Amino acid sequence: MSQLKNQVFKKNQEFIGQVIDLSYQGLGVIKIDGFPVFVSDALPGEKIKFALTRVLNSYAFGRMVKRIQESPARVDRRHPEMIQSGIAPLVNLSYFSQLDFKRRQIVELFHKAGIDDIEVNKTIGMKKPDHYRNKTVVPIKFQDGHLTTGFYRRGSHKLVAIDDYFLNDPRIDQAVAIVRDVLDRYKVPAYDEISRQGIVRYLMVRRGYYTGQLMVGIISAKRKLPMQAEVIAEIVKKMPDLTSLILNYNPKQTNVQLGLENHVLYGQPVIHDLLLGLDFEIGLNSFYQVNPQTTAVLYQKAADMAQLNGNELAIDAYSGIGTIGLFIADKVKKVIGVEVVKPAVEDAKKNMAANHITNAEYKAADAPAQFIKWAEQGIRPDVVFVDPPRKGLTPELIDSLGVMQPKKFVYVSCNPATLARDAVLIKKQGYFVDQPLQPVDQFPQTMHVESILVFERQQF
Ligand code: SAH
Asked: Which end of the chain has fewer surrounding CB within 10 Å, N or C?
């Protein structure tokens, strides 16, 4: 079959087609006799002429030759590099249409899973859907005589230089440029992946949305920079708002950007930020939600939809640094949390203490295994919050609901496909949905969408 396809479809062959959908990466999807082709910067409803660039067994990639009919939802923001880099693949789709597309995608996924009786609200979006990220990690390379920051073009080792990342807090982009230029002036060499020579690999910047505290991480293949004292002094002089400057040592040949060893070059080892009225301590390696504005909306909404009465035993599963559990702690009797990454659990405990919360408990464990254990131990929560990664829940975890029988099950999901799949199993455990599903746009200009869905236990 693939042989046949390869014979039929050849590189550089041109076609005209209608864009019918967007792929998970935000590429336009066109079908030629049922064979999907993915084309960058092509929006649903557009008619385009395209040429095949790569033909694989069951799909192909193409490039735009000519846009014959433009979508009325197209806005030209003149950021071609945001599409090429994959940083903001939807930048040319009007924000209203982005929100609507995300909602319709959820409706369709539930329909495919056989669920048509759940109402889906309009996606809650941002007032200003750009420059929202509180964190960035950018590659740095010696190119054309200078240290350069930007992004790697797909399938290439050449950095495309950019200074405005469009999604980052503007102060973060400024900090990247300032640090890069200081390192350049002192001739600190960039690391080269191929020769394995050089020093600086990435720059990482985080900024507290409410506190304005700024953390800069220099990810380095050596424990010390040349002219280190001078470099530090100059960075500090140029950034009065710098709270923390850290050298992160990562000598390994790996795609993992950050190493585990940190050296504080200046200021504090951590920064603080506020989220939902709570104080969070954030280290260079800590997990922390990257869109502080919508995270607050998402978790506030999840708590509202749970309609808590103050007497519940609540589970916060896949709890990360405890954001949901600590936020609802004053709205329930007790919170028990479970998260698999140990340092995140330690952060959750620290955040608990810093916010004087005494009615929460966090465990480092695999959530499905812990649910089975809790069920066996006779733990009977009134409400369960889950916020799993993209792969969603496991059937074992869902089965344990049959034993624990919480009255409410609040599912916060970053992947509507697994949410729809899991919803089928949760309903089989005796749950129904009364409130509409609420989509929240945590990552404007990208294909991601978060959903909140509340399941309630049927009374027999
Ligand atoms: N609500 C959290 C973030 C949740 S993201 C916060 O705001 O901090 C999903 C979390 O699930 C991640 O922290 C990830 O480490 C965790 N996780 C992934 N697999 C897990 C498993 N099998 N058991 C428990 N936690 C898991």
From this structure: C
